[in-house]
Amino acid sequence: MKKLLTAAIVTVCLALTACGSSSAEDTSAASTAVSSGSDETKETSGGPKGRIAYIVGALGDKSFADSGEAGMDILRSEGWEVRTVETGDASDADRYEDYILDVLDQGYDYIVGYSTYMEIMADLAPEYPDVKFVGFDQNWTDDQLPDNMTSIFYAQNEGSYLVGMLAAAMTESGTVAVDVAMENPVINDFITGYVDGVNAWNEANGTEVKVLRSACGSYSDPATMKSLVLDQIRNNGADVFYQVAGGSGDGLFEACAETGDVWAIGVDSDQYAAYIDSENPEKADVILTSMLKEVGNSLVSIFHSIEEGDETMWGHTITLGLADSSVGYVDNDFFRTNVPEEIRTAIDDAAAKIAAKEIQVKSYYDFADEAEYMEFVDSAG
Question: Domains, the chain, ranges and CATH?
Fold first, then answer.
């Protein structure tokens, strides 16, 4: 068992839960997941409200893609016809446009895809003015968006700030890590918030916790991620790890579980819940919490607005953060058992202040250039 830390610090905890998923019995619209070897059909029981194509790299990451799919399941249960299209990883990037064109040719009313597909969707949107395109996880300005496209952007820096505080509070070695698939503006925003949270904890408590960073180069390479994390444990003494790596994050959990006496922090979905009922429940025992990005709920919210006749989102980017209950972290029994109350109180106080705009979390998008960003993150190393 890991030792509970005792510390006296700051204030209480925001409890956000990962988006729900309908059971097979509740599901009520047709879905076919294609590509990447997956082919699943869910039967429909009632007329569809509209036809949605959800474009995703691969399901099964217990994270970002699965969170979006949980939202699609909710929409299926409500009478939408949803088809999930798995395109594969970056090695199949030259086929991404073909997958989207395929569902356009089949008459889908709405195309939903994350940042990987945003440029393709934006290029195609003017050619299909009767189709609506919903992008997410990309911070585009309105002038980049066609009139029939919207983008949902999440303040992942805010949620990452909170788990950065947690990592700094829970480390016994004084070294924590953030391990990602690859660095890009969105991922760098996670890193920025995490480092800012560690720095805030250091400043408030007179500690000098350091932050290590690594990128494994893929969202589907858990073996490389595991190797990087083991190196950070054995050679750098890191003992709390935040993964932002999709399917590669499984390698981080595996490394932590094998090593013992270190903590992991998941991302996007409640990854403790995902693993505790899996074939590898031992991985759940190292997942202290997960930073939540409520992808599924945000997509459901968009389509509820569409049902209500709201047209204001088209041509605009919508930014969602703590104040919108769209980012946060998992506050479950495991978290409360292993994190001392004074630490939970401190994190919750920070969450409330962020939501109230009393704390301004640093964002990658606020730096003047890459050099300024690197200076900031390197200062914590």
Answer: 31-155+296-322 (3.40.50.2300), 156-292+326-378 (3.40.50.2300)
